[in-house]
Write a structure and sequence with these properties.
five-stranded mixed β-sheet; single chain; ATP-binding; PreATP-grasp_dom_sf; Dna Ligase, domain 1; 29% strand; alpha+beta; 3 domains; D-amino Acid Aminotransferase, Chain A, domain 1; cell wall biogenesis/degradation; cytoplasm; peptidoglycan synthesis; seven-stranded mixed β-sheet; Rossmann fold; globular
C-alpha cells in the first residue's frame, strides 16, 4: 500500500514565495508509484489542503489530518519544504514530534539552533580546518553597539538578520556612514543581527544529505555573482549569477571541503538534505563557514537539484531516499 505523504509549504515569512515554487517541483517529481502526496499550505491561522476542485479543506491541528468526502486522511510522514518559519526554525518539527509523525528535515533542536547564524557558528567553530569570520551578535540597535562595531571590527562588513533566510535584510557596508541604515534594515527583519567582517574569497554552496543510512556530500556549486554579494536578487533572478556545478576546486580542496562539511552535518545532528555555504579565501585557500540552510530550495534550478544531477542521480530517486530515510529515523 502506498504511503501518504503531506508536502508542507507556505510559511510565515517572505520566503513563502520560494517555498511554493519548491513545493511545485517536489509535487510533480516525487514517485507517485510509491507515495500519495497531499500538498498542505501553512499560513498564520490558516492550514489547509487545496482539493482538485479548488476547495480549501482545513487541517485538523489536533492530529494533523484532513477530511475528504467523509473520509479522514492521516499521514505516514511529512516532506517539509517550508522555508523560514515555522518549517525551518523548529516550530513545525516540535509539533510533528508531539504527534509522532516523521518528517524529512532536521529535528526541533537542530532546526532552532541552525536558524540562528551566531549560535551555529559558535557550535561548529572548533571543527578542524573550519574558519569563521570575526563577528558580533547584536540584540538591539543602539549607539553603544554601533561604537562597539567600529572599535572591534574592520571594514568592509556584512550585516544580516541572525534568523533570516534568502539574504533578506542583508547589506554590505564599506564605510561607517552606511552602518546605521544597514543595521535598521537588518533589525526590521529580526530582533537579532549578526555583523561580521568581510572575507575575500570564492563563494560556494554544497549539499549534504543522509540516504540509505549514509551521509553523501554532493559536488559544490561555485557562485559567481555580478552583484557584490549573493543577495535575494542574485539568488532568484535569472542571469544575475553564474552557478558552476561542480565548482572549480582542485583535488585537495574537494577532499578538504567534503571532510569539513560532513563534520558540520554530524556535529549539528542534521537529518535529510542541507546546504552549507562557504568561502575559500583568495590568498590562503582557507575554508570559511558562512551558514547552513536546513530546508534548501528544491526548484528546478536550485543548487541541490543541480548537484544531485551532477552525480548522475535522478532527482526523483533523491526524494525517495529522503523519504525512506525519514522512516528509518
Amino acid at each position: 500500500m502506498k504511503k501518504k505523504i503531506a508536502l508542507v509549504t507556505g510559511g510565515f515569512t517572505g520566503e513563502s514565495v520560494i517555498s511554493l515554487k519548491s513545493a511545485a517541483v517536489v509535487e510533480k517529481t516525487i514517485d507517485r508509484d510509491l507515495y500519495d502526496v497531499y500538498k498542505i499550505l501553512i499560513y498564520p491561522g490558516n492550514w489547509y489542503f487545496e482539493s482538485v476542485s479548488g476547495e480549501n479543506i482545513p487541517v485538523d491541528l489536533n492530529d494533523f489530518s484532513i477530511q475528504i468526502a467523509e473520509k479522514k486522511i492521516t499521514f505516514d510522514g511529512v516532506f517539509n519544504i517550508l522555508h523560514g518559519s515555522p518549517g525551518e526554525d523548529g516550530k513545525l518539527a516540535g509539533y510533528f514530534d508531539m504527534l509522532g509523525i516523521p518528517y524529512t528535515t532536521c529535528d526541533q533542536l537542530t532546526s532552532a539552533i541552525t536558524m540562528n547564524k551566531g549560535y551555529t557558528k559558535a557550535i561548529v567553530a572548533d571543527i578542524p580546518e573550519l574558519n569563521i569570520a570575526k563577528s558580533i551578535q547584536l540584540f538591539e540597535n543602539s549607539g553603544q553597539n554601533r561604537k562597539r562595531i567600529e572599535s572591534e571590527l574592520k571594514l568592509p562588513l556584512f550585516i544580516k538578520p541572525n534568523n533570516g533566510g534568502s539574504s533578506i535584510g542583508m547589506s554590505k557596508v564599506k564605510t561607517w556612514e552606511e552602518l546605521p541604515e544597514a543595521l535598521e534594515k537588518a533589525f526590521a527583519e529580526d530582533k537579532q543581527v549578526l555583523v561580521e567582517e568581510f572575507v575575500s574569497g570564492r563563494e560556494f554552496s554544497i549539499g549534504v544529505f543522509r540516504g540509505k543510512g549514509e551521509i553523501t556530500v554532493l559536488p559544490a556549486t561555485e557562485i559567481v555573482s555580478s552583484k557584490e554579494f549573493f543577495d535575494f536578487e542574485a539568488k532568484y533572478t535569472a542571469g544575475v549569477t553564474e552557478e558552476i556545478t561542480p565548482g572549480r576546486m582542485n583535488e585537495e580542496e574537494v577532499a578538504r571541503v567534503a571532510r569539513i562539511v560532513e563534520k558540520v552535518y554530524e556535529k549539528l545532528n542534521c537529518k535529510g538534505a542541507v546546504r552549507i555555504d562557504y568561502f575559500l579565501e583568495h590568498e590562503t585557500g582557507k575554508f570559511f563557514f558562512i551558514e547552513i540552510n536546513t530546508v534548501p530550495g528544491q526548484t528546478e534550478t536550485s543548487l541541490i537539484s543541480q548537484q544531485v544531477r551532477a552525480i548522475g542521480m535522478d532527482v526523483k530517486d533523491f526524494y525517495t531516499q529522503l523519504i525512506e530515510e525519514m522512516f528509518e529515523g
